[in-house]
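Hey, I'm writing a tutorial for new members on how sequence and structure tokens pair up, and I'd like a real worked example in the thread rather than a made-up one. If someone can provide the structure for the chain below, I'll link this post from the tutorial.
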Amino acid sequence: MFSRRRKRKKYTFADDRVAVETTISLIFGGLSILVSVGCIIYSAIVAGQVSDRVGVLMLIALVMAITGLGFGIASFRVVEGDNNVKRTSVILSILALVLLLALYLI
């Protein structure tokens, strides 16, 4: 009789208008800032008596910020995607690097 064909829903993390590299850059930049701020808060709570794990987390945040910056710059080569989002992903990664550099110099 009536055959209902159900369309399978395709779940994606980002819209088709956003390049994959931009999404990766936004995630890495955001996570880098979150890890850095989390380490700062934890260090303030325990009055600076932190273990080596916090240093390792800061190095991981540095690697994520550099990787995010690399993916953000690479996203400008892709035609799809909005340039404002691409610029935002690069700025977010640069902010993460500036935050880590400021913490290193202090």
